[in-house]
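User: Sequence in, structure out. Go.
Assistant: Echoing your sequence, followed by the structure tokens.
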Amino acid sequence: MKKRYFKKGAEIIKEGMLSDCAYIIESGSVQVSKILSNGEEQVIGVLEENDIFGEMSLIDGLPRSATVLALEDCTISVMTPEVFNSLSKRNPEALMPILKVLASRLRKALNILEQVEGQKTLIQPVPAEV
């Protein structure tokens, strides 16, 4: 895998942009954020050494779902679709960490949805008098 270096404050990926690579943090840390429907930026989390990001676009080829900024100087390995496909053919068990990350992030998103739905049921709108 090719290594890339990013200085503190550099934008590594931008929400909405097309790309098909995943990134593995070799050193440093990054901030993951998303623009909400009201235009505000929401920090989703901070990732550090050995964490992966960009895996969804690697798999589905759709635009980036979040923006990632370097919080400090970073060394990052780039996993291209060619590397991913090669691993899937030669050493499929090497893809388990990526699949575990995807499953973990999906579970987290589902838990957040459940909490939001739970709050909606607690705050039911009062029907208007007719």
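User: And one key feature?
Assistant: The longest strand covers residues 41-47.
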